[in-house]
């Protein structure tokens, strides 16, 4: 066929690749879409971030492994998607000229996308500004005045059988606790999958008479939860993860707490002397962290976890020290890896870096998991004492109250000293009171006489 002089028309012969929400590690099973970074029709490069999601651990930008044109997005901002759910589809390929003179179906002429429904893949002809798949076409030939001409017939596409959406146990539990009938909840996930956000939204919608009866007397949802003006705040993201972990800690760990007052005057003096010269400064929290690693070297049975399935106590070789940090998104616990190998200066530098990352929401999941022991400095809130809840699945946590001037008997004389209350919560399956008391007394001795630390250097 002579195509010279024909008007040039060009389409994009491509393969549609579906990009699904990847496994973000550390046992994470879902993520909330916070902000889309691309729109349908945008051209994306390989490994370009396409969406910002919030997991139970951190805010994460998810890069796309394909380069091409975005043909569809799945999940509105605020929706929760399970790992493996479709995020977007990308047409990957090179521009190729269309053969002029062939009849084209109306969908193709309008620049529509022909291809699989979300979840599939295949060779497609992609135009501009369209998302919906075109109907399938079959080519036939007819004879007009002895000349065969190609024609296109549009055949209806048989609907694919609906996939059965598997609702996660977590969503079922939330629905059960709120007295919701899942058969009456409309799912917004792939294939109509009911997500956690759908259940929480349905729980706040006005009820008709029949649903009121279904969720009325005998329902775990108390009537006071529906009082006019009551505000509902979904337990998801970081707040939901904290709630889940603390609940599990209380449910599974038989914890006990002991506490002691300590004179921190000498510790504060030692810190002033350390920071008087040139070089990096050492924070008080870093000194307390250094004391913890020294104490765990003396009492290694507390750097452990319990394997309930195997009925075994697992003592861990390295100290990965978590410390509580309050942020605008809630309480997070960044982890200092191999804290037992770091000096006070190195601990101070790393803790400052992690604290800043926590406040800006840029901590990675790896920086929020894997801790073996936690230090909780609740004294920054101006309180003297607390009974910490163990950061599951760890075996112990040291709590530090505020350091305040108080009357103290020193060498038989009453004096005003800088006093701090230390509280220690431990898993009673891992050790008895003697070990816990010995650990806490060692920490208190280091606080009162920092020179004790010289023995572990």
Automatic annotation (TrEMBL):
Residues annotated as domain Peripheral subunit-binding (PSBD): 166-203
Cofactor: (R)-lipoate
Keywords assigned: Acyltransferase, Lipoyl, Transferase
Region (Disordered): 96-123
Record field: compositional bias (Low complexity): 100-116
EC number: 2.3.1.-
InterPro entries, per the entry: 2-oxoacid_DH_actylTfrase, 2-oxoacid_DH_E2_comp, Biotin_lipoyl, CAT-like_dom_sf, E3-bd_dom_sf, PSBD, Single_hybrid_motif
Transferase among keywords: yes
Family matches, as Gene3D superfamilies: 2.40.50.100, Chloramphenicol acetyltransferase-like domain, E3-binding domain
CDD domains linked: lipoyl_domain
Pfam families referenced in this protein's UniProt entry, alphabetically: 2-oxoacid_dh, Biotin_lipoyl, E3_binding
Residues annotated as domain Lipoyl-binding: 16-91
PANTHER family recorded: DIHYDROLIPOAMIDE ACETYLTRANSFERASE COMPONENT OF PYRUVATE DEHYDROGENASE COMPLEX, LIPOAMIDE ACYLTRANSFERASE COMPONENT OF BRANCHED-CHAIN ALPHA-KETO ACID DEHYDROGENASE COMPLEX, MITOCHONDRIAL
Record-stated family: Belongs to the 2-oxoacid dehydrogenase family.
Protein name per the record: Dihydrolipoamide acetyltransferase component of pyruvate dehydrogenase complex
Organism field: Streptomyces blastmyceticus
Taxon lineage: Bacteria, Bacillati, Actinomycetota, Actinomycetes, Kitasatosporales
């Amino acid at each position: 066929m002579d195509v010279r002089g024909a008007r040039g028309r060009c389409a994009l012969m491509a393969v549609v690749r579906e990009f699904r929400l990847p496994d973000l590690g550390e046992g994470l099973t879902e993520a909330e879409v916070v902000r889309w970074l691309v729109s349908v029709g945008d051209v994306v490069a390989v490994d370009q971030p396409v969406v910002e999601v919030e997991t139970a651990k951190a805010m994460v930008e998810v890069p796309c492994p394909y380069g091409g044109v975005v043909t569809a997005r799945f999940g509105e901002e605020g929706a929760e998607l399970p790992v493996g759910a479709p995020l977007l589809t990308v047409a990957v390929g090179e521009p190729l000229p269309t053969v002029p003179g062939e009849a084209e179906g109306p969908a193709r002429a309008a620049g529509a996308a022909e291809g699989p429904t979300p979840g599939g893949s295949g060779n497609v002809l992609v135009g501009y500004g369209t998302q919906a798949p075109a109907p399938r076409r079959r080519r036939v030939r007819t004879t007009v005045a002895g000349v065969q001409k190609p024609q296109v017939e549009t055949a209806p596409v048989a609907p694919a059988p609906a996939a059965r959406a598997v609702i996660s146990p977590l969503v079922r539990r939330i629905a059960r606790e709120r007295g919701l009938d899942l058969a009456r909840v409309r799912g917004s996930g792939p294939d109509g999958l009911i997500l956690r956000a759908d259940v929480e939204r349905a729980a706040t919608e006005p009820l008709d008479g029949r649903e009121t009866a279904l969720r009325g007397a005998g329902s775990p949802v108390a009537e006071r939860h529906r009082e006019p003006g009551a505000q509902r705040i979904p337990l998801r993201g970081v707040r939901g993860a904290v709630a889940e972990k603390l609940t599990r800690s209380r449910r599974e760990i038989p914890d006990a707490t002991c506490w002691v007052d300590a004179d921190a005057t000498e510790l504060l003096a030692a810190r002033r002397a350390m920071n008087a010269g040139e070089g990096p400064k050492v924070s008080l929290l870093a000194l307390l962290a250094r004391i913890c690693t020294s104490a765990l070297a003396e009492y290694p049975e507390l750097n452990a976890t319990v394997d309930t399935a195997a009925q075994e106590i697992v003592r861990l070789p390295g100290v990965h020290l978590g410390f509580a940090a309050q942020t605008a998104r809630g309480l997070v616990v960044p982890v200092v890896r191999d804290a037992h190998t770091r000096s006070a200066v190195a601990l101070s530098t790393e803790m400052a870096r992690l604290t800043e990352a926590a406040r800006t929401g840029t901590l990675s999941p790896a920086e929020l998991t894997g801790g073996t022991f936690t230090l909780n400095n609740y004294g920054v809130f101006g309180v003297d004492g607390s009974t910490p809840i163990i950061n599951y699945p760890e075996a112990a946590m040291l709590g530090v109250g505020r350091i305040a001037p108080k009357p103290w008997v020193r060498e038989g004389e009453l004096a005003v000293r800088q006093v701090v209350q230390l509280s220690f919560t431990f898993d009673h399956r891992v050790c008895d009171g003697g070990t816990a008391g010995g650990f806490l007394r060692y920490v208190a001795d280091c606080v009162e006489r920092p020179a004790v630390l010289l023995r572990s250097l």
